[in-house]
Design goal:
- It is a single chain.
- The chain has about 400 residues and is an alpha+beta fold.
- The protein has two domains: about 80 residues, Phosphorylase Kinase, domain 1; about 300 residues, Transferase(Phosphotransferase), domain 1.
- It is about 35% helix and about 15% strand.
- It is built from 13 helices and eleven strands.
- The strands form four sheets. Strands 1-2-3-5-4 form a five-stranded antiparallel sheet. Strands 6-9 form a two-stranded antiparallel ribbon.
- The radius of gyration is 21 Å and the shape is globular.
- The chain starts with 8 loop residues before the first helix and ends in a 12-residue tail after the last helix.
- This is Protein kinase domain-containing protein.
Length: about 400
Amino acid sequence: MTTAEDEKIDDKYRKIKVLGKGNFGQVFLAEEISTKKKVAIKVVDTTRFKNEDQRRHAENEKEICKLLTTEIHHQHIVHVDQVKVENKCIYFILEYVEGGELYERIKLEGKIEESQAKVWFRELISAVAYIHKHGIVHRDLKPENVLLDKLDSIRLCDFGFGKVFDASKLLDTYCGSPFYAAPEMVTATPYRGPPVDMWSCGVILYAMLTGQLPFHCDTMPELFKKISLAHYSEPNSLSEEALSLIKCLLCRNPKRRITAEGVLKHAWLLDNNNKKMHRKTFSGIHHSLSFINYNSGKQPYYNISPSPTSTLPSPILSVGDDELASYSNTPDTSNQRPSKATRFLLHALNKKSQVAPSREKSRDINSGKGNKTLLVTAVRIKRFFSTTFVQRRLTTT
């Protein structure tokens, strides 16, 4: 007798339309034939993987989604019905969330009023706090991976760069979208998972409230330099409490960056008053956060530029492998200079532009002679860029 687990995907579901495309497959809107229930099916074709990193990310996503089908459930995380491997493809059968991406809502409204942003951000942070509590880090938090359901509530999705972490170890996989990447990501520094997610949440909050990104430049070296120094402008249109929370999230030192639990106790989320305080902004031009479609599918990317002629896609960073440790919730009071390794990285970025060297060349460096510290740093930089600037992955919308 054939069980529901053994039933073939094509026999159980009728595909309706393509919702999105990526490097390794597609996301379909489908209907369960027996119940007429609509679902989203994310299909990852494992034969398209080009390296072990891509295979490892898929295995991590499969592990997390299996947990979401059984042990881990949260009202603000997309529910996973089933994970199935069939014909060298991984199928993720997901709850279909009808309201679309937070990304699209920001695009439509220009920016989100603080009263509404409080509701959505509280829901997002409650989901992030939940996964952190259960030993999962997302590592690709951005408005495209935050959905709105038919009741206008937040649903966190897409664990393609997620990881079940060990709190006693550091991670060294550098992944996600550069505009949302934390300083420890862009400087190729071994990092603890949860603080990386909290930085990304800070960028999301800034984008929601202003319709702009806090870090925007014409080139990747300039972008990474701004992120590594946490240089952004404070809009004078926001309340004092909102600016305070953004500052706690966009803290350069991950040990002093606010935690998800800390955010839920912050005055901005607890206080319903929007007291506006005019503050002097840092020098610099506000560049609009504009939204355009990448290629033919519904795969938007950010075009962040001071002029309408300059475009900058939102690539994916991905290399290395992982480990993690503990972190505190102390406010940032440091104005330290970047570390020697960071300064070396920024110097290399400014000279090298955006060409990604191969892993083979990185390994060749190890066989040469010279200063060991310099060689190790050079290897890490090359690894960091080895798979950067690839096409945007598929989403689960």
